[in-house]
Every structure is written in structure tokens, then in C-alpha cells.
Amino acid sequence: MSDPSVTERRIRPIQDAVATANWKQALQLCDKWAKKGEKSDRFLALKAFVQVNHPEKAQHDRGHAEVLDLCKRNPPITDPDAIYQMQDALKSLSLREVEGPKLWERAVTVKQNDKDLYIRWLNQAIADNSWLSAQKATMGLRKSFPKDRNYEFWNIMMCYLIHMQDCLPEKDRTLFGTLAYRMISKAAETIPADQEELLSPGKAISTPEEVALLVQVLNSTGHPEESVKLLLGTSLNMESRVGRQDPQLIVSLLLESFYASKQWDAAFITCQTLLSKYQADDQIWKLWVRAQSESPADSKRQQAQEVLDSACSVKPTIRAAQMAKMKWLHTQGDASSDALLQICKEYASTFSDKAFCYDDLKDSLRQLDKNRRDEFTKTQSEASESLGQLFSLKMSYGFMPQDVSTDDLTSFILQALEVFEKSISTTSPCPEAAILAILAILRLSPTKDSSQNTLFTVILLQIARAKFEDYYLFSIFLILLQANLGLLSLAMQTFTRLSVKNMQYETVAHLILTRISSLHPAATSGNGDSSLAFDPSSAIDTGLTIIENADTALVRGIREGLRFNSYSNIYNSVKMRSAIERSMNRQILAIEERKLARLLGVSEDTVLPVAPSPLVDKRDYTYLPTYREDDAVLIAQYRCGPLPKEKWINATGLFDNVATYLKAEITAQPVVSAKAYENLVELQKRVDGPDFSDGLEEELTKAELANIECHKALAQATILLKDGNSESISASLDKIKAWTSSSLDDRKTRTSGAVVAQDVRIPTWEDLHASLTQLETLQTIAMLLGVLGKKSSGKSSKTKTSAATADKQTLSELQDLVVALEKQIHDDARELKAQVNAPGVLGKLVDWGFGREEPFTKLEGVLEKLCDGVTMETICGGLKESWEDALDGVLAVKVKVYK
Fold it and tell me: Does residue 749 form part of some domain?
């Protein structure tokens, strides 16, 4: 056997060579030490890993055979580091899922008492999401170390996790679910009757966390009634020895089990008992209301009325009880309208100065008819404090008729801004009043002159944020509306003020990063303030890294949960990992990262994988206000296009792999081109599928819809080019030519930009997006022409059959169209830039910001109180600079011609 210190000294330089992908040097070092007699398992595993990653096919095949030999070797490899290295080699051969767990299984057969080896196996299985392998590891621990009771519960946990995996065959899930049920039931049955004198728990349930595991298993395997019975029984209820350790967890598990079992009568009675102790627990009230509504017996109705009246008469007022009464009255029909009105009045009289009051009341108020709602409004109209006035404003906005007049809207906007302005110097400021004004402005004309109103809201938001820099809704709306108006560098700077951290990148960062490559690919300096500098590429890299780090943290959490016998959150962590693996936002960020690299001319030697399906969408908009039922629809109109989902990901992934393949052909990267071709064939099947076109406009912008046929033609031409098919690629080239010609004609016949401040023409997000997506498409067309030209000129002996059908005249005409369309895009950008810099533009923007033009003339007085002339000029000057910056981004993208 080799001396470990000698082996370490020999392996280290090989690992250094591997770290820099210097496979030739790594193999030379392996051969050198092999000749010296080095035969340790670590060395042999590393040598096999080097061989399978070597670019020479002979070495790769030799390494493949060596890896399989080591997997089957007797005696098996038992060194954990060698096993890890073997797993990496198997991953390179796409064999890790099948062969990787077997390495651990064979190792523990010869080291059955090596606890460390079992734990390493379990940890690796958890990291790999391989729950079948993890269960074998825990079963081995349970068998080899029967005196450690924790391994019994670890094994139950793994059986439960297997049962919960939708991706596994139903037969396996049922089998392991049954095993988990039997084992956990046995643990519940063996709880001693006299718990006070318990000396040793043995394998009986003895902690609240073990109770949580019991309930999870019983509820998921179709036995929630047993959960309810046990949690109400003397052995596990809140008064038991186990229950007293964490009564709140026991209550939570009981409520969960009632929902699962649908034992509504028992739930109602139990909640009645619990409410005597936990009157402020809204979850108990929620189940109580649900149980009563599912069992509408007259006796229960009367009983419910008495319980609610009693709870709502308690002083100080119990918010949860009053909310429960409102929800209960919802279920009682029109006969309860007067009672609902009365409880709304009582609730508002207590909480109208609280930010949550309107949100709590709005559903109940919508249940009332107009007369009762007007009566409620009258009782609130005399509020003098700013927060009370804010509640009245929310009521006015929330229940405006759909056909509200422009005069009424502007009057409301003025009222809201006056409340906002007067509250600034008080102890109870109302920044939310400005948000109500913003939403009302957006309602003035959601289609006609929408850019005019958007500009006014952007200026107003910047004024308001200067008064309340930490009020996050100002920044959220600014990002949304600045981006909509083509002010991407300002939107980026605003985003930096949000200080988005950790998994907020998964839920919030999409506000600025969605389609960023086709809106503003270049970094912004922050106008000299380094804290406001923003680089889209770095931001996307940060987002992807945070998602990866979150996965690592969840793995650690699962391991720690087992180690400290904390089972209640393990399944949630497993679900979160699955969501991260299939994260829609993660796929979108990966695509945007590659699109940015192409537009900025950054070399890329990797391939975008085909996205898994289905994907999980964790993008969040719940932080946006919804005073009205249609507010979400209103706000969505100001996004930079529809939300990308799976169809967008597949369509964009197809185009990405086409571009990757063509670039790899030009730069002679056969490994990259082979993988890209494999992916684009798979993605073409998805894009050509019968259901792909259904609802496509709900995910793609107008520009993306206009480009997609060209992208499909590029994919088809690439496949014909690769396969050397006798079928002519002329049809595909004709489609590409038609798209290029049509896009050029469209640009020549229409005027770019939108008019704001009466007659100032500026670029909106749609102008920037259309320009950059067309330039990206032109670059890929240029690469296709380069490959075709290279092959038809005889520089390559491959695919001459296909290339020969692309005559030189067609290629020449298409090349001329590419040049002409690129020039037209840049000419349009220069013309818009000249418009932004025209004399008098700054003054017009200032007048518009101060409300000196219709329909905002009523607001001039309050706006002048909120903002002085110098500040307004600074804001409007920043707008001009941002538009210039965005147009410079379009002008910076050049189409490279390949000859």
C-alpha cells in the first residue's frame, strides 16, 4: 500500500493541472507516477477522471473502461476521497446517477461498522437528491448500530421522502410510504402509558419533532384521522409529557390534520376549546370558520354567533376575532349584510389609523351593496389625522367606478398629493398617499397617451422618494415605470437602492433582470456614485450564485435537521431544493447571461442545457398594492412585456443553441458544436409541437413574436447544414430573407419612439427591445452566412451537398439586407438621440413635471410645494441622460461579418 503522505504529494500537482483544465499535463503526471508504482485508490480514481476528460478519443475510451473496472473491482474502493473522485468521473460519463450509489453500497459491505463511511454516503445522497440511496444508507446505520434510536427515525424520514417524490414510479412511492407508515405507527404505539416515569424512550416517540414526523407520514399516506386521534389522545396532546415541550407545534399539527381529514364537526368542537386559550390565534379562527361553513347546522350557527359576539366584545379588541367574524358573515348570505356593515364600522373605528386596516376590510366591503358602503364611508369621512385620511383615500380609490371621469380622477390625485405633502412634516407621515396618486394617474389613460402619464408618474415618484428614501414602494414603482419609459440606466440605479439580498433575487430581481439583455446590455456607472453603479452581467451572475448557494444551504439544513433530530422542516427544505432545481427564474437568468455575452462580444465556450419540465415559478408580485381587484392588471400593463415562462424559455433556448452551434463551427470547437446541435434538435421538437403556439402572445413580446419564425428558420437551416441533407436549405434562407426584408421595410415606414411632454419624442422599452433583438438575430444570420460561405468556398469538405444548394446570389442578397437593416436600426437610434437633445426639451420636461400642461394643471400648486425648480431641472436632466445612455447601448452593438 502506498504511503498516504507520498500519495498526497504526488496527487497535488495533478489536481492543480485539472483545476486549469490542462488535461495533457495531468495525464503526463499520472503516467509518471504510475510508472513509479503508485497504486493507491485515490490515485487510480484521479487517473481515470483525467482520462475520461481528455480531449483525445483514445484516452477517453481508455478512461471509460478504467472507471467501470474500478466500480466493479474486488475488493471495492473504501477510501471516501477516492469514491468522491470516482463520482466525478462517472458524472463526466453521465453515469453518476446509476453507478455512483453502488460505490458506497459496495464500500460499506466490507466496512459495516464504519459509521463515518455510512454518514458520508448519506450526506452525498442528500446532496444528490438521491433519496433511494439515502434510505439504504440510513437502513445500514439502523442495522449496524441498533442501539442508536435516532437512526430508526432517520430511516422513517427517508422512506417518507421517497414516498413524496412525484418523479419516482408509483409502485416505489407506495412501497416506501407503507414502510414509513408501519414504522412510525409502531413508534407511536410503544409510547409508555405512564409518561411521567419515562426513563429511556427506546424507539417510542418522545419529542415534538418526532410527533411532527409522525403527522407528516400519517397525513401523506392517507391516515389523517389517526393523526387527529393521536394528537387529541392522552399520549400526545398538549397536556402530555411530549406536548408540553412545544404546545404551539402540537396545535399547528392538529389544525393541519383536521384540514387533511375533513372532520369538520370534530374540528369545530376542538377549535371552540382551543379559542378559550388562544383567542388571538388567527389560524385557529380560520379553521373554526371553515369547519362551521362545512357543517351549516342551525345549532352550530347560533353557537358560532355567540362565540363571535363574546370574542368581539373583549377589550382591547382582538383583531383575529373581528376578522373571523367578518369572514363568517361572508358565508351567511345577504341576510347578514347589516351585521357585516356593523362589524366593519367597529373594526375601522379601532384600526383605521393602522396600515393594515384597509387590506383587512376590503373583501368585506366589496360584499356590501353601494348604499351600505356609502354609509360606511360617511362614518370615516371626518378623520383629521393623516393616517385616518389615508384610510379614506384608500376607500375612495378602492371603490371608484370603472368609468370614473378624468375630472374626478384628477381631483382625487390632488387630494392624495395634498395629504402626502401635509403629512411630510408630521409625526405620522403618509408616503402611501403618493402611491394612491400614482395609481390614479396610471388610470387616466391606460392606452391613449400612456407614455405621457408614465413620464409624469416617474417625475412624481422621484420627488416623493427624495422625501422618503426608505419607502420601498417608491423604488419598486420607479423600477417598473422607468424601465417602461426606456430609462433603463435610471431603473438600474433605483434597483441598487433596494439592496436586494439572498433569495430575494429569486422573487424580486426579475423586476430589472427580465429581458435586460434586450433593453440595456451595458453597465451603467451610476453618474459617478459607485454605490449606484450597475452591471447587468454581474447582477445576473450574482443572482445565479445566490440560487446555487441557497441550494448548498438547504443541503446543510437537511443534514443538520437529521443530526439534531429536527424533522419538521426537512421536507420543506427538500421541496425548496426541487423548486430551485426547476426554477423558472434560474432558467431565464441563465439565458439572459448568455444573450448579454453575445451582444457584448464576450467569448463563450459552454452550451445552454435544455430546460427541465415542468418549471417552478417563484417570481413574486405580492409586495405590490392591490387596493382594487383590477390593480394587478393595471400594473402588469406597464411591465416590459409579458412574463416569460416555459414557451419563452424553449424558444429562446432554441435560438441560443443555434447561435452557439454556428459560433462553435466558426471557431472550430467540435465538442461544443456537437452538444449544441443535440440540444437544438430537442428544442426544435418542443417549438414545433402542436401546443406551442397556443397562448404564445402571453409570454413573448411583439418583437419576439415577429422574430420567432426567423429563429425557427435559422434552426432548420442549421440542422440541414449539419446533416448534409439532400433537401435544399433555400426554403429556410428565403424565410430568413423575408424576415430581414420585412423588418427593414417596417422601420422605413414607421416613426420610432413615443411622444411625451406634448412634442418630445423619446425611446420606450419597446423601441430598445425591438432594436436589440433584431441586432442579435442579425448577428446569428451573419454567422450562418459565414459558415455557408466557408463551406461553399471549399474550406471544409463537410456538408457540401447542403451548402451547394445555397447559391452565391442568395447569400449576397441576404448579406446586403443584414447590412441595410443594421444601418437602419442605428439610424433610428441616432435620430431619436437627436430628438432627445433638441433645443428646449429640458424646459418642456420641467413644465410637464410641474403640471403646467393638461390634464395636470390642477396639480401645479401642490407640486411646486413638493419640489423646487432646481430639483426639477436635475430630475429632468437625468431623464435625458438616461435616454441617451440607452440609445448609445443600441449604437454600441455591431454585427460582425464572417468571411
Answer: yes
